[in-house]
Design goal:
single chain; alpha/beta; Rossmann fold; 6-stranded mixed sheet; 10 helices; about 30% helix; binds guanosine-5'-triphosphate; binds magnesium ion; binds zinc ion
Length: about 350
Amino acid sequence: MNYCCNIICMKGRIIKIFSDFYYVETSIGVIEAKLKTVLKKQNLDVVTGDFVELESVDTNSMQAFITGIVNRFNLIKRPKVANVSQFIIVSALKEPDFNYEQLDRYIAHCEYHNIKPILCFNKEDINDNNELKDEINEVYSKIGYQIIFTSALKKTGINELEPILKNNTSILCGASGVGKSSLINAILKSSILKTLPVSEKTKRGVHTTRHCELLEIDNNSFIVDTPGFSHLKFDFLLPTEVQKLFREFLNTDKSCKYNNCLHIDEEGCSLTSLIKNIPASRFFSYKKFISEAKEYEQKISVESLKNESKVKYNKNKILTKISNKKRSASRKTNKQNMYKEEM
Ligand SMILES: Nc1nc2c(ncn2[C@@H]2O[C@H](COP(=O)(O)OP(=O)(O)OP(=O)(O)O)[C@@H](O)[C@H]2O)c(=O)[nH]1
Ligand SMILES: [Mg+2]
Ligand SMILES: [Zn+2]
């Protein structure tokens, strides 16, 4: 903490945000702060997990203003959290039903952000389908993802999770109702976070957690609870970029002779033997994400055509096209019109 000209300057980390209020963990406890106007004008996303500088003029109420972000090493766009070292993707084995495609979406998003995912399969205590566990192991361990089976309720698997969290900022993500908040409560050995049963009717979560919240496990270990969401789409990438999100295509020394091949059903594709070994669920997800990326590709090509039509090229010069309505008639057209009128 520094004092200068009656202004107290501090550093801290944002632990949660409610509308305009930012809660910042500092050496003197949690301070409620607002963004300084100059920062608002910069239109910068200041998010949970950010390390920030604060200043305060009123020592009694500790009303403070965030003046800047420091040392941000990454920013996750969805959910919005900064300085994350790993993802713990939580799925439920049951209630809500396990969904391969949804898990693949989360995994692909981690790959996109270049952040390590750990796959946590919760509610092991109510799982009565042992084949499912074998299948999960078969599909995901083989391609190198670390897998943990847990029960937040019976506190099993938690001791396996704890060393993974050490010295990291880990973000828990996954659909509503899978048990993210319950797992954090189990790790912290408290009931600090609110949890609610999944809906009897829809068998889905009821969106209990509404905000991202960073919690301290110990000195250098943090965990972020996030609201459950499931609408991650790949409508911002080109189809060829989707392959980079699937380890199956990266962890191979085989290569395809075609440049822009998606290795789905192209004739002459050299990776057909590789594709045959990709589990059906993973290949299904791959094709689905490719189709979303294709929609994006089409959209941008239509947009670029629209933009292109506004200019034309003449002897290496770019000329702005004038719409027919605004264009004055050529001398030839004028002559023809005069001729018509005379007739
Ligand atoms: N049987 C069983 N139930 C669990 C387990 N973990 C969580 N639950 C229950 O599942 C329900 C949902 O748990 P939450 O922790 O609220 O789930 P969440 O992922 O945080 O959900 P959102 O905040 O809505 O995203 C609660 O009723 C929990 O008690 C578990 O390991 N086993
Ligand atoms: Mg929750
Ligand atoms: Zn190919």
